[in-house]
């Protein structure tokens, strides 16, 4: 698995891996015995990486079962199966709507999670796969938001629809989707605001944006939630709120390079039941990667 992509993923997960690998090595240095203390310490190491108690309980239960059924001889042979069991926590089949054509994507999430950056990276990915892309700047709340999206649009070499600051975001969506139809766009990516006066205001505004998108889009409309991996378990509560207001179809998990608790991806998959479609491992245009559960699990636990 030494492809350039795996190498980049692995680099992005360095902080998480060092932490988990360190703890697993301590565990292995205790000795080869697979006793109750071993299972407890394994559980603690996994919980410490933010995988969430539900996933950890399941992973450890499956490993205990395997250890008994296959009569695994020692701690090493149990840890050797860990990556596979972590990967099993993720759904094995789901539609990657970011690769569908045509499609309209509403990119939502809390302020600062990386929505605008992710729109830019997705624009580049889509252009590289030969698709006609249009961006819509529906974050009309922040002064700098449209300028920031313009910069990404320029980097990716795609057009962007915008209106003045303070304009109705739903009007931007209307304009964007009419232009997408006129241009024959394959993918329309709509950036939205992450903060308003209150969270109720924000959810109401996004619901309006979604209604207008559903009405005006000739392509299927999907909701992509951008989550910041560094916010850990707090992000889960925000995700539930977005999901109940809008119905989230997929997740982009950003800033995995900025946390030692990358296990949060496991908690997200297990507790939200929404597929992670992309992960962000840096600030550059090429730092958004398709999610693969086996690669992720392997990069997360390393060579312990
Ligand atoms: N390290 C890192 N930084 C990221 C990633 N994605 C976004 N960021 C940074 O997070 C900050 C907020 O991003 P932005 O797109 O403006 O968030 P928005 O408010 O949700 O639109 C910026 O400084 C981005 O460069 C990532 O995957 N890794
Ligand atoms: Mg933004």
Topology:
Blueprint: H1 4-12, H2 14-29, H3 36-48, H4 53-69, H5 75-79, H6 82-87, E1 103-108, H7 115-128, E2 133-138, H8 145-156, E3 160-161, H9 169-183, E4 187-192, H10 199-216, E5 221-228, H11 233-246, E6 250-254, H12 264-272, E7 276-280, E8 288-290, H13 293-301
Parallel strand pairs: 1-4, 1-5, 2-3, 2-4, 5-6, 6-7
Antiparallel strand pairs: 7-8
Helix pairs in contact: 1-13, 2-3, 3-4, 7-8, 9-10, 11-12
Can you offer a commentary on this structure?
- The chain has 304 residues and is an alpha/beta fold.
- Helix content is 52%, strand content 13%.
- The protein has helices at residues 4-12, 14-29, 36-48, 53-69, 75-79, 82-87, 115-128, 145-156, 169-183, 199-216, 233-246, 264-272, 293-301; strands spanning 103-108, 133-138, 160-161, 187-192, 221-228, 250-254, 276-280, 288-290.
- Strands 3-2-4-1-5-6-7-8 form an eight-stranded mixed sheet, sandwiched between helices.
- The two termini are 16 Å apart.
- The mean pLDDT is 94.
């Amino acid at each position: 698995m030494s492809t350039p992509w795996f190498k980049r993923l692995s680099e992005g997960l360095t902080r998480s891996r060092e932490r988990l690998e360190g703890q697993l090595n301590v565990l292995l240095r205790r000795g080869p015995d697979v006793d109750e203390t071993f299972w407890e310490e394994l559980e603690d190491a996994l919980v410490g990486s933010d995988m969430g108690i539900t996933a950890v309980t399941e992973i450890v239960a499956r490993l205990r079962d395997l250890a008994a059924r296959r009569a695994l001889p020692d701690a090493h042979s149990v840890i050797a199966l860990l990556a596979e069991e972590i990967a099993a926590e993720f759904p094995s089949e789901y539609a990657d709507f970011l690769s569908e054509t045509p499609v309209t994507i509403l990119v939502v999430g809390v302020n600062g999670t990386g929505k605008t950056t992710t729109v830019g990276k997705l624009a580049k990915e889509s252009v590289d796969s030969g698709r006609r892309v249009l961006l819509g700047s529906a974050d009309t709340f922040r002064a700098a938001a449209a300028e920031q999206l313009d910069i990404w649009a320029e980097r990716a070499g795609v057009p962007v629809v915008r209106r003045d600051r303070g304009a109705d975001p739903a009007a931007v969506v209307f304009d964007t989707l009419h232009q997408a139809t006129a241009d024959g766009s394959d993918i329309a990516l709509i950036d939205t605001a992450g903060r308003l006066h209150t969270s109720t205001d924000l959810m109401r505004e996004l619901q309006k944006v979604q209604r207008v998108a559903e009405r005006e889009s000739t392509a299927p409309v999907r909701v992509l939630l951008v989550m910041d991996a560094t916010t850990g378990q707090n992000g889960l509560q925000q995700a539930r709120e977005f999901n109940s207001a809008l119905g989230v179809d997929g997740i982009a998990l950003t800033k995995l390079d900025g946390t030692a608790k990358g296990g949060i991806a496991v908690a997200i998959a297990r507790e939200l039941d929404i597929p992670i479609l992309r992960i962000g491992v840096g600030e550059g245009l090429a730092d958004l990667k398709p999610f693969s559960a086996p690669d992720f699990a392997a990069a997360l636990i390393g060579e312990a």
